[in-house]
Amino acid sequence: MATFTSKLATAAIVAFAIGSGVPAAAEPATTASDCVAAGDVWVHVEYDDTTTGACATEFSTAQEATTSAGLTEEAGPFYTTIDGRTANGTTAREWWSLYSLPAGAGVDEWDFATVGAHELTLEGGQVVAWVLQPDWNLDAVAPAADPFAVEVPVEETPTASPSPSESPSATAAPSVTASPAPSASATPEEAAPGLPKTGV
C-alpha cells in the first residue's frame, strides 16, 4: 500500500509541474547589453555598410557561438559566409577576420584571433566579432562599431492567417450550385443576358 501511495504522490508532483506553467526557455536577447547580462555571448558582425549581431546561447567556442547565433550554416572552423555575405577570396581577396572582447572590457580592447573559430574558447559575457577584410595582404582592421550601441532590427513574427475551417467556406456562402440555376426554369430568350425579349 505504501508503494502505491508513493507512486500516486510522485505522479501528482509530475502532473503539477507540467500543469503549473513551468517557464519555457527564454528567447535569446536582441541587444548586446541584454545578451552579455544574461551570461551569453554576443556575436557582432561588420561587412560593407552593414553592422549587425545576434545572441549565442551556446558558446564554448567561437564556432559554436556563430552557429548558435544563426549567423552561418557552415561547419567552420574557417568561414567564407557570415550573415549571408560571402567573402570573395578569388578576385577581391576578401576574408573574414575574428575578434573577441573580454567580459567587461572596453570596446577598444578587441583581441585579434590567431586561431580558428573552433579553437577560440569563450565565456559568458563576452563579445565575439566577425569583420570582413577587403584584402588579405593588408593588416586586419578591428571592429569599428560599438556592439553595445548597435540596434539590430527585430523580425516580427507574422500573424497567422485564419485556417480554412475558421473562415467562411465556399459551401457556407451562396454559390451557383447551392441555388437554383436561372436557366433551369427560364426560356432560351430569358436565359440570354443582354438581349431584348423579341425572339431575335
Automatic annotation (TrEMBL):
Chain spans, region Disordered: 153-200
UniProt signal peptide: 1-26
Origin superkingdom: Bacteria
Gene3D superfamilies reported for this sequence: 2.170.130.30
Comp. bias (Low complexity): 153-193
Signal keyword on record: yes
Alphabetic keyword roster: Signal
Name of the featured protein: DUF4430 domain-containing protein
Source organism (scientific name): Tessaracoccus oleiagri
